[in-house]
Amino acid sequence: MASHVVGYPRMGPKRELKFALESFWEGKTSAADLEAVAKDLRASIWKQTADAGVTLIPSNTFSYYDQVLDTTALVGAVPPLYGWTGGDIGLDIYFSMARGNATKPAMEMTKWFDTNYHFIVPELGPETKFSYSSRKAVNEYKEAKELGIETVPVLVGPVTYLLLAKAQKGAPKGFDLLSLLDSILPIYKEAIGELKEAGAKWVQLDEPALVLDLEASKLEAFKKAYSFLGADLGGVKLLLETYFADIPVAAYKTIIDLEHVSAIGVDLVRGAKTLDLIKEFGVGGKIIFAGVVDGRNIWANDLAASLNIVEELQQALGKENVVVSTSCSLLHSAVDLKNETKLDAELKSWLAFAAQKLLEVVALASAAAGKKDEEFFAANASAQASRRSSPRVHNKAVQEASAALKTSDHRRATPVGTRLEEQQKHLNLPILPTTTIGSFPQTPELRRVRREVKSKKISQEEYEKAIKAEIDSVVKLQEELDIDVLVHGEPERNDMVEYFGEQLEGFCFSANGWVQSYGSRCVKPPIIFGDVSRPKAMTVFWSQYAQSVTKRPMKGMLTGPVTILNWSFVRNDQPRSETCYQIALAIKDEVEDLEAGGITVIQIDEAALREGLPLRKSEQADYQNWAVHGFRITTCGVKDTTQIHTHMCYSNFNDIIHSIIDMDADVITIENSRSDEKLLSVFRDGVQYGAGIGPGVYDIHSPRIPSTEEMAERARKMLAVLESKVLWINPDCGLKTRKYAEVVPALTNMVNAAKQLRAELAK
């Protein structure tokens, strides 16, 4: 029986691509050096997948930055800003689009559906001229073939690509991006034709937009696209791959009727209802690539349950019409459990990273073909039973405290407008107050200090001395820059989620469980395996120290329960809402300890609130209710004079603005600059927001340093729709990934922009 994976992590088991990219960007290595690392990684991935026994192996899932940006290169949709004049798109243009450069901003970046992966948003308009400008898919197919490995080239499908795009500046209002479909399809046809000539037997087109609630006109676009692409293929089979949710009934009926599509990939982990559609409506003579192995989590599959689904499909469709696959690309999973030396044997038995998921896919395919590996299945069953019964997982006191939360909505008693007046009496801030989001640059020296205290190469006393010195430096810098509300810079923190997870019960941590977030940026999500509680205070010591060295307000910095949840590998044996409430109780205790310790401004970041929003509208209200409730639990016990901030970044917030208001924070700082100030359109449309708000005035994910006037002009646009008494001036996000040589001039310009605007308002 055939086996397949949708995609595989591209960074490498030890983040080899990350380090190669950053070395290249810093000018330490050449393009040839970078390409050599990339080629070795691709070969290693293909060989590992083949050796595991997978029969349909993906290619062109590797990327130097992002697969959607690769598609922009494929179709030659480079915005005019970047000065591309045609021909193959080289690394200079490619990375300028992704990261910006000294003179040009980066393209917008946002979350890939409901994941923590970010993609570069295509910018298209009526003047866009598509051309076949990158032969990456063909080249990588040939590269694998030279190694003796037959692969399935993968492309982001044309309809999903257009639906994910945004209209270029200057495009007519209401410009329909799908009007470009007729122009882009010949480029895809040409690429598929070259793949056919190179010998490809299958081409996978990822169309995850099919799981969204699409109106009929958008479904018609799929009919047009695949009628055109599939005609006269002559032996190349098209796999239409979907993932992340159930396929809606109308979309399912549409795709089973696509004449030239040979197979459909379906997510049967997050989209279990799709199984009912298959039984009710059939598959239109197509092969089903059954995504039964979870590509978005790190828990070992319940193989017996997965095999039941596969056998059910076989009975309904015939054995020859079912292929065992992953639910989505393994890009969203950690790479290989064999690199984990810190996890104990019991915990490791409950887990499966990408490399282990390859083995699960093959084991299921073999079992479905009548060649069941009894020993492999028995070990899996034993691990499943161990996890269900382990006392490490269950804490009755935590469960009872969480259950009791549902009797209240945990709102602060005083309206936000009144609270802000009380807070201003204590804080005495100027109009348009300035602040930063939390982190300051993480230098190699800081990382060394944290590493050495963990390995006991330095004492706790030496560690605290080094961290205090860094806090002193960051505070002094902010005072010199004349920033109004300060942060301590978070020098003691490795990651905004991991730092808290390490101090909470119910969490464990991998040593090398890295997952790509965007570009070279990787995160190592905590693993929530059991009930969550806080044994002791987590941040109070450092926040109190930072406040002691300045008279200006110092923010206590916390990560909110929804973000901790959404940026972790979450246990799958209870509802996510239950785990969220448990985390909320722990953060509530920390908030109240900070307040008792003299911290009067507390920021609770909810950067990931939007990305947890279910893709289907019918499921969104329930998520928003419990997620917002979880945040309010953390803040419901503080005084009116304690100012609660929150922060959100790199998502489309416009469709959840009422939930953001319902969080009842005193101040929200929110990404705005890289997304062309889309957030402001909400307020232009009449949404009333009475709390403080700081839409970011510059993009910290680019090395580019905007001028004072550029930031001032951005803030003027904000003042056109927001009252000056509620507006804050701040960057888009934390400064952890930047260098001080970039941060100091950027913050200088930001503060000067605020002062310039204050002077204008005073006239």
TrEMBL record:
Protein's name in the database: 5-methyltetrahydropteroyltriglutamate--homocysteine S-methyltransferase
CDD domains per UniProt: CIMS_C_terminal_like, CIMS_N_terminal_like
UniProt xrefs under InterPro entries: Cbl-indep_Met_Synth_N, Cobalamin-indep_Met_synthase, Met_Synth_C/arc, UROD/MetE-like_sf
NCBIfam families: met_syn_B12ind, PRK05222.1
Residue ranges of coiled coil: 446-480
Keyword presence, Hydrolase: no
Cobalamin-independent methionine synthase MetE C-terminal/archaeal domain residues: 432-755
